[in-house]
Amino acid sequence: MRLIFIRHGDPDYEHDDLTEKGSREAALLAPRMAVLGNIREIYVSPFGRAQATAKPTLELLRREAVTLPWLREFSYRIEDPLTGRLHVPWDLPPEYYTQVPLFHDRDHWYEAPIYQTNPEIAENAALVYREFDALMASYGYHRHGDDAYYHVDRPDSPAGRGIPSDEDRSQYGPGFHPTDEDETLLFFCHLGAELLLVGRLLGISPVLLWHGVYTAPTAVTVLNEERRYHDNAIFRIQVLGDTSHLREGGEPVSYSGAFGPILQEL
Does domain 2-265 have CATH number 3.40.50.300? Predict the structure, then answer.
């Protein structure tokens, strides 16, 4: 199985919509998504900017999306420890967040004192993890507790095949893996929510990803299942924050949510 996360287009946060640029970005994204093939389901955040980003893709595919309330932006406010201003929980000064050991803990990051000032953070992190794990389980991917791997239990999947044998390769070709499933789940969401889920899949604190990873508006991030022995699987990043559809369409990359306009030159 392949999981694809797409951040919404260039945002008009005031109206929870896309800017004109964001609408152009979403239009350029749609043909790229349309060639994927075998999209099992499309999920979208309830927020307007994510819905507007998904719309051109849905129209081109003649599909409908499932809106997931918990896929909303993870924007529960905290007070900046240096400036005192209220803002989202992933915009912390480096001289602060690098010195708090709990921020590095994949299982207890939300217990950091600054996050405890807003109970919605721990409550909704647990909600997102629980709902995402349940969604994966509905496709036959059962998480091994808090460990970042899954046992795959699917009636359409050869069980216990493990690493492909020489016989498998000779029968189906050199690139064949008998338990790789060529189907995709597509998620239209937000930078904070996307990295929260990527952290869950990789077993990494999202705080490290929030402060160390940037994906531009309409950037495409792909995680692919890798099945190992006894039908245990991990998800591994193959593509992170790709915006080739924008460059190919002559649309500059937005740096909304980042602080480095050099992105325009890449």
Answer: no
